[in-house]
Each structure stands twice: as C-alpha cells, then as structure tokens.
Amino acid sequence: MTLSNQTISEVTDLFKALSDPGRLKIIYALSDSEMSVTELAESLDIEQSSLSHQLKILKNVRLVSVRREGRKRLYSLADEHVYTLLTQVISHANEKR
Amino acid sequence: MTLSNQTISEVTDLFKALSDPGRLKIIYALSDSEMSVTELAESLDIEQSSLSHQLKILKNVRLVSVRREGRKRLYSLADEHVYTLLTQVISHANEKR
DNA sequence: TGAACATATGAAGATATATTCATGTAAAGT
DNA sequence: ACTTTACATGAATATATCTTCATATGTTCA
C-alpha cells in the first residue's frame, strides 16, 4: 500500500466527512431509502441550511449522490461500500468492553 | 443496525482520529512494525510533542496500543482491523476517476 | 409573469482541533 | 543523588469546522 500525498488528502477528507454526528445520522437515514432534503431535515430535526452544507460535504467525497425530481433533490448513499464501512467501524467501536 | 447516541459518539471519535494526515501517516508507519516515539518522530519528521498528542488520540480510540521497554514506549497498531479499514477506504478513494 | 416551494450558498460568529512552547515525570546510567 | 534520555502534558495561539442568518437560484404552478 502506497500513500501519496494525494491519497492521504483524499482519505483524510473521507474520514473527516464521516467524523460528524450529524453526517453519520444522515448516512444512516439514507441507508434505508433515498430522501429529499426536506424529508431529511424533518426526520433528523436539523435546519435545512445546515443540512445542505453537510450534504455538500458528503457529496464532495462521493459518499452520497443526488438525482433531481421536479424541484426536489433525492439523496442516496453512493454505494453499499459506505454502509459496509460504517458497520465495520461500528463493530470495531463495540469491541470495547 | 441501531445507532445509539453512545455508538454515534464512539464512531465519530474513531473517524475523527483517522481524519488527520499526520495521524494517518503514523498508522501507516506502524503498519510495518512497532516503533518508539523517537523513531516515529524522526521517520515522520514531526515534533515529539505533537506526536505524543496525536498518539494519545489514537490510543484513546484504541487504534494503537503501547508497551514499555526500558524508557521507550513502543507503539503498534491495535489490530489488523485498523489496517483493513484503511485499505478499504483508500480503495474507495481511488474509485474516483 | 408572479408567487410559492425546494434547495444552495456566502458570510459571520461560536466552537473545536492542532501545533508549539515550556515544563513535568519517569527510567537508566554514572 | 545527579544527569541524561524518552516521553507526556498543560497552556496558548493559530487554524479549521459547524451552525445560523440572510439571501440567491431554480422549479412548478396559477
């Protein structure tokens, strides 16, 4: 495994995107089904503006993707990779006794 | 998969620990072999104090572990889980075209 | 076209995080 | 006991990040 500077910054950006409780909840919510921004905001009880900012971060690192439907934007997980990763880390966290 | 508040904070702490270039380099260096603080500091060209602070963060989330040998502290990865996780995320990052 | 709805974005303030500096602690050798 | 070596830690400053507020953009519908 080689770590170029580019790889390092991509990987840290990815981890950084995952290192916020709000964004983790977003990802968890999206693991069930795609949702619009408004639906997410209501479901997570978070401000729309804040949510949009966070979604942008998740999108930048390709953790989520969007499609348009009328005036709505439907967000979903970019791939199952994301979910797999998350469950792994959760089990690692739970290994603490 | 259920996300209790405790799980969320443990997982975000773990991701947070991984979301720094310096700490990523530390983990990468330790994937070869255990190293003392001085060895790490020289190898990564980083200040000893800064390194100690970062090692503490990594230790808090159980990514690395330590054993003492004389006046040295030998740090190593806590388990291969860590390395597996890292390689997965690297390949995810590299999926960008 | 104008109004309402859905989402994005820039700026500002609050908070968190990282690095450095100075110093503390602990083990080993003399 | 004193000095040196190895590492840890607290405080301070610098930087990054998050949230909120205000506003902009884009879409639909009357």
Describe the structure.
The structure is a homodimer of 97-residue chains. Chain A has a three-stranded antiparallel β-sheet with strand order 1-3-2. Chain A has a single domain, classed as Arc Repressor Mutant, subunit A. In chain A, a hairpin with a 2-residue loop joins strand 2 and strand 3. Helix content of chain A is 62%, strand content 14%. The termini of chain A are far apart. Chain A is built from five helices and three strands, in the order H-H-E-H-H-E-E-H. With 97 residues, chain A is α+β, with helices and mostly antiparallel strands. The mean pLDDT of chain A is 93. Chains A and B meet through helix 1, helix 2 and helix 5 of A and helix 1, helix 2 and helix 5 of B. Chain A binds a DNA duplex (30 and 30 nucleotides) through helix 4.
